[in-house]
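Closing statement on the nicotinamide-adenine-dinucleotide sub-project.
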Amino acid sequence: MSTAGLPVLEPTTHKRPGVIRMGVIGYGYWGPNVVRNVTSLDSCHLVAICDQNPAALKRAGRLYPGARLTVDATELLTAPDIDAIAVVTPVWTHFDLAKAALENGKHVFVEKPFTSTSAQAEQLIELAQKRNLQIMVDHTFLFTGAVRKIRELVEKGALGSLYYFDSTRVNLGLFQHDVSVVWDLAPHDLSIMDHILHQKPEAVVATGAKHVNDLADMAFITVYFPGNLVAHINVNWLSPVKVRTTLIGGSEKMLVWNDIEPDEKIKVYDKGVDITNGQGVYDMLVSYRSGDVWAPRVEQVEALKLEIGYFAECIRKGEAPHNDGLAGLRVVRLLEAADKSLNQKGNVIRL
Ligand SMILES: NC(=O)c1ccc[n+]([C@@H]2O[C@H](COP(=O)([O-])OP(=O)(O)OC[C@H]3O[C@@H](n4cnc5c(N)ncnc54)[C@H](O)[C@@H]3O)[C@@H](O)[C@H]2O)c1
């Protein structure tokens, strides 16, 4: 292996039953989190780490002396002792690396956003289906205690019929040089929206602007669903403060999720409006309901650990995860529609 001057470890031949042998490509900002969680799970075994940057590999080597290290992704993609590859590189590299992994018979865990285009996502999904392999797209937030609790509340109808989903994800930076704020931050909100609302969107409208380089650094995305349900997402790299707040309004209850809050991240408000019709046309009576506020218990878990454990379980069982290639594709389609609308100064893009 090309080890950039690091010790050479020979391929392992043994396979422990039920343990998924993993190779991780990309050890930049997010890759170390993926690697750390892979090594924390009994159901996974970290076999190798690849990064084009030898300095990144050196960092990895200090922490994981048992893992093989290489600057050449092909060595992981073709390794006979690797069952699954995690692709933790910039988005424009996802398609080629994931395609090569699938072609070599490996399951793939791909970072968000899944691919740069929906055509690429469709191709990967087809390839995985043909080869009977699993794709998981890292929509990390779906595995947080907060999102799992919100989904549970929505599923059991605790909020009544849903009116809106309104998410704000703003802070100063981190500016990405290859993708806009839409492709960097909005995949989180869009995947959460998709998972919680569980409905097929009809249209997208987006406005935004670029101030610092040639990529949008702020955007307002509106997603329309059947039945007057509407979602709004505000992503911004030029905010002086960090805000991570989602409001979900329903006919029975309203919910606020403040992810910055250490405890009581979710508050459910028994607030709303009740309309009663009087005799005449102008006799509509609006009464405002203001009842109790409740903070449900939110499980404190490391989302990525839960997610990678679920990836290993899905591979073992031969079952598609809920955050599979199709979930990744749904997000990429919304991102493409948002880009198109943004470039047309907010034209409605029908899906
Ligand atoms: N799920 C999350 O919450 C989350 C958070 C941050 C980033 N991400 C995603 O993770 C991915 C990586 O983001 P990042 O911030 O870690 O980027 P980064 O630029 O910090 O790191 C990427 C690393 O990949 C390496 N690399 C690039 N192409 C390679 C190749 N062909 N072979 C081997 N190594 C290669 C680079 O040398 C670099 O070290 C992106 O898709 C990003 O959207 C997800």
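The chain has ten helices and 15 strands. With this model delivered, the sub-project is considered complete and its resources will be redirected to Aim 3.
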